[in-house]
């Protein structure tokens, strides 16, 4: 990405919340009550996103103003949007993936997993700030939540991990990477065993990366100094 390129953004517009997502840079999204607030939050977190990617040599120059953003689509949100999670599959994700995509996605996943592990290590033994009502997951609960979410995302590709190995994050990561190879081979069905629609693989990667990055920032923002 050059300094003159604008970053493509799509918005999910819910009844209560708006989510601003970068189209081509999976993992960078922010949630707020309004479009302006969501875009401002995305700008604020962009530098932190670039710091994650740049450690693996992935080029991303953080936008410095709204002029650096190009809103290419506005989608009507759903209940997931208003819950506070991305829930709309952008049109550009509705496609098969190539070997080039697979290599790029694997590099992105690996750098985000590494960043998550580093964040967890740095937070060990430290107190996490509670919410206004005393809520908020503990560090171990966040790790468990990320692990369980990864398993749920795998099911959206008709993939699974043996029950006895579902506590092992490394095994789950390997299953995710193998899913990408299966997708290149055309082995991901359009529907699951019970007939439900599955996710296109680009959206599977977008969701997996976005979720782990979101929890990296949650931990960093909640650690009491």
Describe the model:
This protein is α+β, with helices and mostly antiparallel strands and 225 residues long. It folds into two domains: 7-88, TTHA1013/TTHA0281-like; 94-222. 47% of the residues lie in helices and 11% in strands. The protein has helices at residues 35-54, 79-83, 99-123, 139-155, 169-184, 201-222, and strands at 7-13, 18-22, 29-32, 69-76. A four-stranded mixed β-sheet has the order 3-2-1-4. Helix 3 (99-123) packs antiparallel against helix 5, helix 3 packs parallel to helix 6 (201-222) and helix 4 runs parallel beside helix 5. The model has no long low-confidence stretch (mean pLDDT 95).
Brief sketch in words of this structure:
The protein is α+β, with helices and mostly antiparallel strands and 225 residues long. It has helices at 35-54, 79-83, 99-123, 139-155, 169-184, 201-222, and strands at 7-13, 18-22, 29-32, 69-76.
Supply the key terms.
225 residues; alpha+beta; TTHA1013/TTHA0281-like
C-alpha Rg (nearest Å): 17 Å
Number of strands: 4
Based on secondary structure, the structural category is: alpha+beta
Shape descriptor reads: globular
Can you give the mean pLDDT?
95
Largest sheet: 4 strands, mixed
Taken in chain order, the helices and strands follow as EEEHEHHHHH
Regarding quaternary structure, how should these chains be classified? Answer: single chain
Name the strands of the widest sheet in spatial order. Answer: 3-2-1-4
Write down the domain tally: 2
Helical content class = 40-55%
Name the poorly predicted regions.
none
Distance between the termini: 35 Å
Share in β-strands: 5-15%
Count the helices. How many?
6
